[in-house]
Amino acid sequence: MTSSLLGTSIIGYSRGSGSDVCGRGIHQAAGAPLEPDYVSATTEEMNRAVELAAAAFPEYSALPGKVRAGFLRAIAAEIEGVAEDLASRGPLETGLPEARLRGETGRTTGQLRLFASLLEEGSWVDARIEHAQPDRAPVPKPDVRSMLRPLGPVAVFCASNFPLAFSVAGGDTASALAAGCPVVVIAHASHPGLAEIVGAAVMRAALATGMPEGVFSLLYGGGRSIGMSVVQHPVIQAVGFTGSRAGGTALMAAAANREQPIPVYAEMSSVNPVVILPGALARGEVALAEAFFGSLTLGVGQFCTNPGLVFLPEGTGAEFLGKLKSLVEAGSPGTMLNGSICRAFADEVEAFASTEGVETIARCATPAGPGQGAPAVFSVSLRRFLEADLLQGEMFGPAALIVRGSIVEIEAAIPELEGQLTATVHGTEAELAAHASLVAALQQRAGRLIFNAFPTGVEVCHSMVHGGPFPATSDGRSTSVGSMAIHRFVRPVAWQGFPDSCLPAELQEGNPLGIRRMVDGVNA
Amino acid sequence: MTSSLLGTSIIGYSRGSGSDVCGRGIHQAAGAPLEPDYVSATTEEMNRAVELAAAAFPEYSALPGKVRAGFLRAIAAEIEGVAEDLASRGPLETGLPEARLRGETGRTTGQLRLFASLLEEGSWVDARIEHAQPDRAPVPKPDVRSMLRPLGPVAVFCASNFPLAFSVAGGDTASALAAGCPVVVIAHASHPGLAEIVGAAVMRAALATGMPEGVFSLLYGGGRSIGMSVVQHPVIQAVGFTGSRAGGTALMAAAANREQPIPVYAEMSSVNPVVILPGALARGEVALAEAFFGSLTLGVGQFCTNPGLVFLPEGTGAEFLGKLKSLVEAGSPGTMLNGSICRAFADEVEAFASTEGVETIARCATPAGPGQGAPAVFSVSLRRFLEADLLQGEMFGPAALIVRGSIVEIEAAIPELEGQLTATVHGTEAELAAHASLVAALQQRAGRLIFNAFPTGVEVCHSMVHGGPFPATSDGRSTSVGSMAIHRFVRPVAWQGFPDSCLPAELQEGNPLGIRRMVDGVNA
User: Fold this and answer.
1) Nearest to A477 among B263, B452, B497 (CB)
2) DSSP H helical segments within A144-284, as ranges?
3) How far, in Å, CA of B524 to CA of B521, rounded?
4) Nearest CA in chain A to B497
5) What is the 3-state secondary structure (H, E, C) of A201-223?
6) C-alpha distance from residue B12 to each of A295, B20, B49, B173, B184 (Å)
7) Is B498–A451 a contact, with Cβ atoms under 8 angstroms apart?
8) For A1-15, A166-180, B490-504, B508-522, which range has the lowest pLDDT when averaged over its residues?
9) Do the Cβ atoms of B451 and A499 come within 8 Å?
10) Contact A434, A343 (CB under 8 A)
11) What are the two backbone dihedrals, phi and then psi, of residue A141, each rounded to the nearest 5 degrees?
12) CA closest to A447 among chain B residues
């Protein structure tokens, strides 16, 4: 399979050339580079990818939803056709186990098909019709009809921690293509081979379904320069990103400083607070510790929804902490996604450990080998937590901070937290009801509230919200997981006084697509 | 009535004090100041207004939609109770005729009641339910439910050109209050008396319906300092603004540079291109000129949707232009909203008139008196139009530029236009169909497409889109008119695994509110 990897960008229906090697995939467990060399897209290639996307937009955005759905289904089928390639290359490049890669392949094709089914059903466009009232006094009412339309070409950055489900053909790409937006993907340096395998699959699907050239391109490049150039290109109309806070805020600044500012959907950092109430401990401290440890160490802790911050009422939970200590000490270091994440995690853990007032509950007894991250749990008083800004930061890996205070203090501290993807409460139903104001405070800080479970494992469905107030994301009005993600790449457009024959099918009087619409204020 | 004006800010349920006079209303036609002096809110008052809004948010946002609807209806009733005061003070401060002020009062109360009815019906929250599948392999599916929830306290800036419908209790305030967001309004210096009359009405309505103090405040202040301080205050979560491009982009920059960036909905500038195809001329050039002149001069041309740019195929429309010339020459200067708008309009007209290649079609024969703006129409070749950036700018008043070129050239020029609120085509149905690519290009540049009518007169309804790509607005994904405006002030929140009793009513299993919901992917 490796012999079929070319190491070049995909520019519409052509492959890139150039000679500026930007890197290779790394066999993370062995620390050894993998074939082939990857070559940066040239400036001309970047411009051509973006201009092809702009040229493809009028045709692609005008395609019936069912035709775009066919393209998404073809991508899913092409990805399934290379599932073995992904399962063999993936574990090398990412350090993730093969089972995870296979699972993520299924999640990726599942997302593509979820959006395909949304397009096939068709009601997502929020079609609204208000009929004319020519005799209305003092002025006649015009016929006005509206629906959601795509923004234009979108730049998508691959994520290191979801090399398939949030990379080349992941959630951002699927939702943007579904909306009717051509996509220019910027590959992540830590899994170039997976990117190429998936990118070639998308290109084959586009060709097979007759999509206009430029509906998809994939660019390799060193550092951030290629990506930043794409974001600054005038034809790009939105950006999807999953990664670090530094990377996300740099894209936000670049997008805001364009001559035409554009929206950036950056999913950045979250420590996903968990509040444990006494009733949850009463149900069984050992089981709770086991469940928490499982969530904390899943995927070597490299999920945006990793539960990195736990509020535990002071004077409770001795057995929970004891069990957690033994689990952490007996735990295993795991290979992390890439060297820079591994080094950053080690630094973050040491910074927490050496902060005044922070106590080490437990650290993994087995030392981390090269490229590995090892579990660790710390604790701190609530008062000290609120004083030390550093402790609100993320340890991106299998480490958590346990904050001790009274329940009253915990509730008072919630508004001091930064924006989060998730917030979790463990307790009884009666406690949840009794602490309604605590839950309301958590709601104001997060996109998803969880009761008696842990935040890892983000269900891909119509009701999922994987977003939250800054800095969890750049734009808390959106979700990057689930079918609502399509709303990031559209805007409403109204047609006034148009003859039926010149309206989009979604807005024609006879409702030829049979979609749900609001007609004269009534949901029909 | 004037004797009841206090000239002070409204801080929750108190009135402001302070002694720093920031100005008076001006009798625009006479150029004479009106009683009373208006006093700037102090920094302490500004902080108190914002902190009261934050304190009110948990209670206000948790009220049932029907209770918030009652508040909106009470505001509408209180405004109707002061309709005579508005009709007597308004024409003085704004230069607008009494009939316009009475019409705008009706539009304002109509908007409030439209949002009230939206809340009473309840389905706007986009409730989504996915039921748990505990037996699903390989992992169980959790119960996940989502709906839209308010962002938090919102800052609203009053508009000079809609002293009621986009000011203290206008569309931004109505949609934010409907969403569940407390509002801090910053008064516009050019109609302080109207602002106080309406602000006092809102305060009475809030008291009468038992709203938490801080759900509404109204601040006076000199220059931009008070407004900028509100936008920069950490508790403010969104901004609504209608005004100049300079003002809007300054707010965008301030919001982007906060520690937590927040969304700004600024409706700024638009020249609202109109394309006239030969079939429209064939139907009657004189009638077309009359309709265009009526739209151009409505409200002394001070509408965001004023048709300031007309593409007329070269070699056509002699009779249209002749009639337009006679209408403009015989037209009347009108009193403008305030002195600075009047001076800016005069400067913009002179800048157009003195641009190389611009020909004066007609100017009003009656010279503009103090504070007045007079109709003017210019023309230019399409080639020259594309060369001179200034000509894409707005003349905010009753003036337009007619651009002459072939239809092919006109279509090619559309993508060069900046983002617009509206784009209009006049022609036959056959022409509209034949020029589908021209219409598609206009769609990409505007929020509302109009056929055979003019863009002034923005219908307040469920399907209206009064928004458009930058710089027409700061965020083309939104509308400031119509019921979709509520979506600017909300974000989706998901509840996972929550017991029914702790869910919002909208998401409870039995659907106690009887709203439309999506259940397991099916619109029910």
Assistant:
1) B263
2) 171-179, 192-208, 225-232, 245-256, 278-283
3) 9
4) A451
5) HHHHHHHHCCCCCCCEEEECCCC
6) 46, 20, 6, 15, 9
7) yes
8) A1-15
9) yes
10) no
11) -90, 130
12) B493
Residue of chain A nearest B128, judged by CA positions: A463
Cβ atoms of residues A168 and A4 within 8 Å: no
| Separation CA B182–CA B53 (nearest Å) | 5
**Annotated catalytic residue within A45, A93, A267, A285:** A267
Buried b (16+ CB within 10 A) or exposed e, A439-448: bbbbbbbbbb
A304 catalytic? Reply is yes
CA distances to A498, B45, B187, B507 from B31, rounded to whole Å, are 45, 31, 20, 57
Query: What is the arithmetic mean of pLDDT over B60-68?
Result: 98
Confirm whether A267 is a catalytic residue: yes
Would you call B495 helix, strand, or coil by DSSP?
Answer: strand
B440/A493 Cβ within 8 A: no
Inter-chain residue contact A495 with B459, CB threshold 8 Å: no
Q: Cβ–Cβ of B477/A151 closer than 8 Å? A: yes
| Sign of the torsion angle spanned by Cα atoms B4, B6, B10, B15 | negative
Q: Distance (Å, rounded) from C-alpha A273 to C-alpha A269?
A: 12
What is the distance between the alpha carbons of residues B121 and A518, in angstroms, rounded to a whole number?
Answer: 13
**How far is the C-alpha of B268 from the C-alpha of B470, rounded, in Å?**
9
| Catalytic residue ranges of B | 267, 304
From B219, B253, B261, B217, select the one nearest B43 (Cα to Cα).
B219
Q: Any CB–CB contact under 8 A between A459 and chain B?
A: yes
B516/B524 Cα distance (integer angstroms): 6
In the prediction, which pLDDT does B24 show? Answer: 95
Distance from CA of A380 to the nearest CA of B (A): 26
Among B453, B462, B502, select the one facing A433 at the smallest CB separation.
Answer: B502
Select from A62, A263, A453 the Cβ nearest to the Cβ of B496: A453
Residue B213 has pLDDT above 70, yes or no: yes
And the tokens for A126?
């929020």
Q: Which residues of B touch A142 (CB under 8 A)?
A: 453, 457, 459
**Strand, helix or coil for residue B27:** strand
- Give yes or no for a contact between B290 and B325, defined as CB atoms under 8 angstroms apart: no
Mapped to the 3 state alphabet, what secondary structure does B97-124 carry?
A: CHHHHHHHHHHHHHHHHHHHHHHHHCHH
Q: Kindly indicate the confidence band of residue B19, based on its pLDDT and cuts at 50, 70 and 90.
A: confident
Testing the interface with B: which of A265, A458, A496, A501 to mutate, by most B Cβ within 10 A?
Answer: A496
B105 interaction partners in chain A (CB closer than 8 Å): none
Give me the residues paired with residue A424 across strands.
Answer: A274, A450
Is residue A125 within 8 Å of A148, Cβ to Cβ? yes
Mean pLDDT of residues grouped by 10 in chain A (524 residues)? 82 93 93 96 96 98 98 98 97 96 97 98 98 95 98 97 97 98 97 98 98 98 86 98 95 96 96 98 98 97 97 97 98 95 97 97 97 98 96 96 98 97 98 97 98 96 97 96 98 98 98 97 89
How far is the alpha carbon of A394 from chain B, nearest alpha carbon, in Å? 17
Q: Do the Cβ atoms of A449 and B493 come within 8 Å?
A: yes
DSSP code per residue over A426-481: ES-HHHHHHTHHHHHHHHHHEEEEEESS-S-S---STT-----TTTTBS-TT--SS
